Amino acid sequence: MDTIRSRFLGILLLFVSIPALAQTTLFEVTDGESRILVGGTIHLLHPDEFPLPDAFDRAYEQADRVYFEMDLGEALNPAFGMQMMEVMKNPEGRSLQSKLSPAVWERLEAYAKETQFPLAMYQPFDPALLSMVLVVFESQRRGIQGGVDEHFYQRARADDLPLGNLETTEEVLGYMEAMTGLDGDWLIESTLRDLNNFDDMMTALVRAWRRGDMDTIYKEMGKPMREESPELYELLLIKRNQQWLPQLEAMFSQPGTELVLVGAMHLAGPHSVLKMLEDEGYKVTRYNASH
Fold this sequence. Notes:
The chain is built from 12 helices and 9 strands.
């Protein structure tokens, strides 16, 4: 495990199939008699991973409302993809290649040739967009697709269960635009390095996710990101967790039980949203389906 380090790839939490284990990344947060359920998810998942751990189904069955990071109806709309490409487009006269060193560009070309990735299509865009596209491309090559969030989004819609989200589409696009200021060489080098270790890394991380091993999730994903790109760690983890906190606190005053589903990285490490809730005086425990 010491050689497996998830950098930019860890943002999407892509995993491959292993057997289910008993404990997973579900927590109960209480304020007196009020409670919310918070679950760490995998955004993209191999179909062999279904059905999900029983605890997720039980938490869903106890929920009166389900919250996601953003409106998944909008996220799944092709129009959102077009908006994201627009905010991550290079300034006029700048190409993807011009934002990368010759050595990194050479590695990228070699990857594209080997995998038949249409690199020329992405010349107008920032390396940050390409990094995300490469992760999705490599996932699709392995049959990985919709994950935990999309599964429960579709299920809640079918059950006519009320839905909510922690951030608006505009806020998400703002984060995407801010990523265009990051070091392009680091983004592409990290992504290619992770893709080279894709299967081993994802097998190890999904094992940690299924058993609720938050220390390993942070060690292999959050900690390397924090050390190698503190700007990205601040932007995508700390800042978003801080902005979610007031919305989570407001849920305690609502009747019923909320199930909040966010990427597992947001629940791991010293800056996790769970730690922030504890610091505010809320009690955080592992989810017990019998409650």
